[in-house]
Fold:
Amino acid sequence: MARSVKKGPYVDPRLQEKIEGQKPGKSGVIKTWARRSQISPEMVGFTFGVHNGKEHIDVFITDEMVGHRLGEFSPTKKFHRHGGRMQKELEQQKKEAEVAAAKAAKESTADAK
Structure:
């Protein structure tokens, strides 16, 4: 459910204090755990290290991000791959193509000598 318009967007007070008085781009990475904070126009140009539960992921704030939350740009889950026979066949074909390309490159260097 959306936050009331009269309350305004939520920005963590400690995060607001960190960016006050600093110039964008010169402050380095600002680490934060406040994933629920909305991005305000004052944050544009800063780089935040947003915590994803394990590490801080650097997020450079642009104009298009205003109004979104910081947590949207720091995924908490890592996609490994889809499984199954079809995926294994595709990976096998890719490996075979790489081996063939390596052999061709090796032969071309041997012929040049």
User: Anything to note?
Assistant: Strands lie at 29-32, 47-51, 56-60. The chain has a mean pLDDT of 89. The longest strand covers residues 47-51. Helices lie at 13-19, 85-112.
